[in-house]
Each structure stands twice: as structure tokens, then as C-alpha cells.
Amino acid sequence: MDITPDSIIYWQWQWINLNATIVFSWLVMLILVLGSWLITRNLSIEPPLSRWQVALEIIVEQIRQQIRDASQQKADQFLPFIGTLFLFITMANLLTIFPVYQSPAGSLSTTAALALCVFVAVPIYGIKNVGITNYLRHYIQPTPVMLPFNLISEISRTVSLAIRLFGNIMSTSLLVAILISIVPLFFPAVMTLFGLLVGVIQAYVFTILAMVYIASGMNLQQRKTGNHHA
Q1: CB within 8 Å of 188: residues ≥ 6 apart
Q2: Which residues form a coiled coil?
Q3: Which stretch, 22-26, 70-74, 92-96, has highest mean pLDDT?
Q4: By three-state DSSP, how is residue 17 classified?
């Protein structure tokens, strides 16, 4: 039983290896790119709309609404980044319905990379919205003594974001595999559905936390400057 897709090696040459994490990450990206191209190539504003376009509009509007609820900010500027995170993690977890597939989210390297993207996005959005001086100033609030603690807080929440997603996906996959091996005649369908549900929930939790982290740096300064957006 493989706990993480990192341990499944398909090809190796010296220190370079091609493992399941890399293969299935590219598979998920390929599916998302092709799916996006197929759905958006014939978009229309006149009815009747295709079922795929209706489904896409529902998904985009739901993501936009969740961004507004979580951040109390206008959603459009965050939609490409937050939407991509959600769709990638969700698709990566939903494909576990296929027996040979291993979710890349079950690898700590994948979740660390996703958390690192959030870590970089936080100052980018913060500086873009409140300016570099106002953004950097929040690291010394309420006093300059808090600078190291605020920096540690930034790093620790990024680490927790990566470990939370990795731990939940890995533990769920392990639990499903154990139960299926114990009672293979009764639990496979139920446990597979349970794994899919947990995967979608974890994608939702990860993206909402990412949005909250991004909004937090902006809100701190907007409250000070009186430019808070409703």
C-alpha cells in the first residue's frame, strides 16, 4: 500500500525521477485545460445555452460568491487565482474514483507548492491594493517589537495550510484503502463516495483559508486608511 504518490516511481535516471505525483499533476492540468477550451470555445449570451456553459457559469458564480463572503472584497480580482486553486484540488481529488489514480494532493510536495503560491499571493494582492508602504507597515503593528512574531505567523500559517491538506487527503485515502481491504464486498462504493466528499470539502477549506489569508493583509490597512470595501 502506497501512502503517498511520491513513492510510486515510473521512471528514474540518477537523481531525476518521474513519480505518480508529477504524472497525475500534469494529467489534472491537462484535463482542466482541455475541458476549459472545449466549454469556452462556443460561449454565447443568447439562449438556448449549452448545458456545459450553464454548469460553468454556476461554478464560477458560486466561487465568486464564496470569495465575497470570505473576504468582504470584490471577487473579480481574486477569481483567477482562487478559482484555479479550487478547481485543481477538486479535480485532483475527484479523479480518485479511478483505481490506478493517486491524488497529487496526497503528496506533501504538491500541498507545499500550493501553500507557497498562497504565501506569494498574499503580499502581491496586499501591495496591489494598499501600497507597499501600508502593506509592510502591518508587520510592525501594533509595535515594532511584533515584527519577528508577525513574520513567524506568516510562515507558520503557510506550513499549516500545506500540512492540513496533505494530512487530510493522505489519511482519508489510507482509511478508504484499509476498509476496502477488510470488507471488499460491502464498502468500496460507500468509502469511495466518502473519499470524494472529503476531497471536495478539503478543496473548499483550502481555498477559503487562502482567501482569508489574502484578505487579512488588505483589511488591516484598509481599516487604518478608511478605505474598507463593503
Answers
A1: 180
A2: none
A3: 22-26
A4: strand
